[in-house]
């Protein structure tokens, strides 16, 4: 492919480096910007956090990513901001707050936190409104200064109350010193970067192109293979749009988890989405990870997969000259085995829109409540009329070799009244459909127990029916 | 040579006058009436600017012209004989500049260093590693502590075969036995005897910056940049390995990204970096991966503890007996007995412990070695005793704890958490969410020692430099040195520039045992004090005062105590310095007869347990700790917060899991080895308790370690208070909570 062009802080970069090289290595090794640190190379510590800015309307939208998982090829036409791009001789309000509240100890994680908090300042939506800590949820401090960092974050948050909305935002942030003046010229400079024509996807050669959704998993599992492969990016072949049409919610094959988290349509359809997404992944990982990637990754414990199964999702598989729709549950044949043909890409997915009769819930239990891989996760979608269940879809992860739609239990639920006894019976019936194994996330018995508890929790959460006494441990 | 001074020591309500014998040239410890200008305040770190802008250069950031990338080949077998290593293909690869195979015959854990390469890029170095052919002869192995103890278990050190204790494997070391009083008589005096079996897991240090080294030779002069908590130990070890004088080795560590006990010495990776650099005749960096960090670079051993405690109905603890063992892999250090030996006045104690070798990475010192494990059992036993005799857990501790500081801390902490809100009968709330309160104590003993040195240079422009060869592990010693020197000279902090992390500067000890502050700050104060005496002489001459006229340095002025109008500005005075500079180096003196040389500490936890899912949510921790005089309220608070948070992480999440069938670690990353994030952390009320300890001229004692000791125990006691179910095993995961709840419902199981 052609040269990659992007802005790194205030400099235009033109490079022919490997598309699959992670941004972190380019920034540190090629550009010698060592403020961005290497802590884990798997997106879990946030020491390598950078901001990526993409044109949106007249301005630029900035989001945090862990640069250890972000392929260089994807930054074409973007503004990449590292800690070095934030200040020269005077500190930004974020940095000042970190100094004054003692938010830095050994200091190794500090640039990552500063970058994440600057992303918080640049955020124009209400996504962090519930809890500003969402902005630093992807950063680990081992020393550990979370409380001091949170105090710094609160102070920044207070200053940002004055921030105007819309087009004046950037001028205000520059005036207050949150970002340097060169940020004002970034939109025009990004527009001047010529678009690239994506390569043809080939599937028949001995070294097929690797199509990356986000790469948040592949770049953890085999970063060297990705670095050395011909890579292509889903964003060039599929849409990121999330829209409603003919009673369905359609999600583009390149949409990320953060797109889902921020979509006003989804917020309407699934009002609890932000609370669920908070359990799934940190903001930087959600910004990288694609929904389609989560589905085709076929992890038996994929959080979004389990949610989509319960929602009744279908996927659109596209090959060069053909397209077909497939119920999501029919994609999974066995452990990591898909009924997807070589060369087919997941171009879209859809699920029936929710109605006032819908009851949807997602539950997950893991050792660490947030951002951990679940021991068991489960989702449920009911359509109810009066007190009677009309339609039901119950799904569970971590209890079978595939992400599991609990067909029998779902079928049984239809026609049942919404009562605590129904919940208990469903929780018991679900047991006959699963075959959990013992592993590091818990014993088989424990996972069975969790499934029971989560099914009960669905009913308690989504239908507000009282828990029957027998259900308590 | 020495003088006797009367010193007021202790804390409000517990003052006592003590006679201290101190060297003639020492400043006396600060009097409680002294009004501090810089010390004992909340002062932001002097190096925070460099840290928040990303300009602080860590070892992993060192870039030298011609720098080569080193990579380690580590064993993939838990136990094997190495029949041969063939590095010829790796050596022949273009871009490879050095290959070193270690002369080892056996590997004893997955992750053990076997060979290293240096190449012009990290990709080439990785490729070269794959070209090294190691012929292993795999041998039987054992990674779990129970199997390793049994007779006939595969031996980690076959040479120890003859030393097997009776009925056990030679993997087990001889028992260490500590006896106090008469344990049998103690149990006889008891009206109740309680027992408990406790287990704790292996925790890895997980420093965010890996154990990185960059080495460069110029002739026979070796320069090393190290992510270390002891620059001088790296220097001395490398001097020994290469048989050169320590004067030929210079170690830098200006910024380092966390150590927690795992970063002493050069060890294999430091030596290999220097060996590669020597062979390649070029600088080499060697930066372990996260996986290697988990496997190779240290851990806190696990423990299996059998505790027996005797108590009388009046609350007197009459006997404590702890039998424990644990594994630090191929290393020792599993003893969990120190809290029970050090806490509570119980006269009859018996502690028995043994190390068990397994085919796993070696343990290293980890923030209060042995203590969080030992506190987990001891402090739950104390609660069990209290419940048995119907006594409040706070009351039984107050009654059995002789430490005046800790007793005062308990009263204070109980008020702050609202101790009277605790459930009088545990586990009787309606649920499904249950709340409870718990508490636990800590102790620590390292109060510093003599020997650290500081060089102070005062320049004619009024600026002051201070030099220490030691490192800042993150606790803020650079800032504390600046504060203490500024305080003594009566000048603002802005005039100070502190240089650290360079073995060409004066000696400082390693940052271990919570002793950096009590070792280094007294040297800083003494150097500043001695420099000040010379400035006083100069001022007297300028002001035409009698020699020996008492003088004061305050607010950038030097003036006569008797007549403050006889005064000279700091800026004016330093202009008159002969040769434009005044240099003074001073050494920290021995410890004096202190008010206390055992550091106390107590923590209170409030938790919420979801009895449906087994999830524990910590709602609040009140942590009351002492470190002598608090030199900096911000950095001290950070220490307390950090200890508590690591304690929560240890209590609920962290667990190194080895597969007994393969010997491999199944979670060698941060994806599956979970450490606490900001969302899991509750409100922390860090209460710092000033004590004029008097063991040195700044009253400083240590703080880093004790703050992580009682957290897991306090949480476990709170979980019990909430649910009536006791957690005997760490980490307290949802499955263990559910099991404990089930057990509580049907105890026959």
Secondary structure layout:
The complex is a heterodimer of chains A (473) and B (749).
Chain A: E1 4-8, E2 11-15, H1 23-30, E3 49-56, E4 59-66, E5 79-81, H2 93-100, H3 110-122, H4 146-159, H5 169-175, H6 186-191, E6 210-212, H7 218-221, H8 223-228, E7 231-233, E8 242-245, E9 248-252, H9 257-262, H10 264-269, H11 273-280, H12 283-288, H13 291-297, H14 303-311, E10 314-318, E11 323-327, E12 332-334, E13 337-338, E14 345-352, E15 358-365, E16 376-385, E17 388-397, E18 404-405, H15 407-413, H16 420-430, H17 444-463
Parallel strand pairs in A: 1-5, 6-7
Antiparallel strand pairs in A: 1-2, 3-4, 3-5, 8-9, 9-14, 10-11, 10-14, 12-13, 15-16, 16-17, 17-18
Helix pairs in contact in A: 2-4, 3-4, 15-16, 16-17
Chain B: E1 2-9, E2 16-23, H1 48-52, E3 68-74, E4 80-86, H2 88-92, E5 96-101, E6 106-107, E7 113-119, H3 122-131, E8 133-138, H4 145-149, E9 176-180, H5 183-189, E10 192-200, E11 203-204, E12 213-218, E13 221-226, H6 231-241, E14 249-252, H7 267-280, E15 284-286, H8 290-296, E16 299-300, E17 303-311, E18 317-326, H9 338-342, E19 349-355, H10 371-388, H11 393-400, H12 404-417, E20 433-441, E21 453-459, E22 464-467, H13 477-489, E23 496-499, H14 516-543, E24 551-554, E25 557-560, E26 567-569, H15 570-575, E27 581-587, E28 602-610, E29 616-626, H16 633-652, E30 683-689, H17 711-723, H18 734-745
Parallel strand pairs in B: 3-15, 13-14, 18-19, 22-23, 29-30
Antiparallel strand pairs in B: 1-2, 3-7, 4-6, 4-8, 5-7, 9-19, 10-17, 11-16, 12-13, 12-15, 17-18, 20-28, 21-22, 21-27, 24-25, 25-26, 28-29
Count of extended strands of chain B: 30
Q: What's the CATH H-level superfamily name of the largest domain in chain A?
A: Beta-grasp domain
CATH fold topology of the largest domain in chain A = Ubiquitin-like (UB roll)
Q: Largest interface, with Cβ-Cβ < 8 Å?
A: A-B, 77 and 84 residues
Uncertain parts of chain B:
none
CATH class category of the largest domain in chain B:
Alpha Beta
Helix content of chain B: 25-40%
Taking strands numbered 1, 2, ... along the chain, how are they ordered across the largest sheet of chain B? 5-7-3-15-12-13-14
Strand segment tally of chain A: 18
- Residue share in helix of chain A: 25-40%
CATH domain topology of the largest domain in chain B: Aldehyde Oxidoreductase, domain 4
Q: Assign the CATH architecture of the largest domain in chain A.
A: Roll
The helix/strand class of chain B is alpha+beta
Largest sheet of chain A: 5 strands, mixed
Overall number of structural domains of chain B: 4
Which structural category do the helix and sheet elements of chain A fall into?
Answer: alpha+beta
What is the straight-line distance between the termini of chain A? 60 Å
